[in-house]
Specification:
The protein is an alpha+beta fold and about 200 residues long. The protein has helices at about 5-15, 30-40, 50-65, 70-75, 80-95, 120-125, and strands at about 100-105, 130-140, 140-150, 155, 165, 170, 180, 190-195. It is about 40% helix and about 20% strand. About 35% of the residues are buried.
């Protein structure tokens, strides 16, 4: 466990407010990435709002080049196009914020976890100070950021105002209809801040 990174993540979630998406767009997948980066930048990298606006413009340009912009604004991004978008966006993020970002898969695609075990890998990455970007399928159908946990709650840093979800509500099994939040292994990434470009 990286106590320093975990503490910084907790403080960031409490001190900052997430960027909020527009009332009628479906850009939550993009905003989730931006919000995770804001958490990573805390407390020493004070990224100016104009820099995030520049990053937003670059992201919109990427979506346009990938021919996903119109659909994304209206309906959002499914995991496969979102992952391709993230691949293109990470170098732009690093250029703007000045530090490198590493992505970790939260779940092994082949691993079949019981619902009660799903929260374990999530807590593992949070304990290392890594915010987790994922899509909450089923009830919300919404990309968000998990930035902490306590008891049976996972605390969100969310572009649409959601604050927490219950750990018992999660499943990786698409056939379990009694769990409101369906997670997809290919759409669950923990973000880690590596060294600054200047180091």
């Amino acid at each position: 466990m990286s106590e320093e990174a975990a503490l910084a993540l907790m403080e960031a979630r409490l001190e900052m407010k997430p960027l909020r998406q527009g009332a009628v767009d479906s850009l939550c997948g993009f905003y989730a990435i931006l919000n995770a980066v804001r958490l990573l930048a805390y407390p020493d990298k004070h990224v100016h709002p104009r820099d995030f606006k520049e990053l937003f413009r670059r992201g919109i340009a990427i979506l346009s080049q990938q021919r996903h912009l119109k659909f994304t604004v209206s309906w959002g991004l499914d995991p496969d196009p979102w992952n391709r978008f993230l691949d293109r966006l990470v170098p732009e993020i690093e250029d703007v914020v000045g530090f490198r970002v590493k992505r970790h898969r939260v779940f092994d695609k082949k691993l079949r976890l019981k619902p009660s075990k799903v929260v374990g890998p999530i807590r593992y990455h949070i304990n290392f100070g890594r915010p987790i970007v994922l899509i909450l399928g089923a009830a919300y159908d919404h990309w968000t950021v998990i930035a902490g946990y306590s008891g049976n709650r996972l605390h969100l840093f969310d572009s649409d105002g959601y604050c927490w979800i219950n750990t018992r509500s999660l499943t990786l099994d698409m056939h379990l209809s009694n769990r409101p939040h369906q997670l997809m292994p290919e759409a669950c990434w923990a973000f880690e801040r590596l060294s600054d470009w200047t180091e």
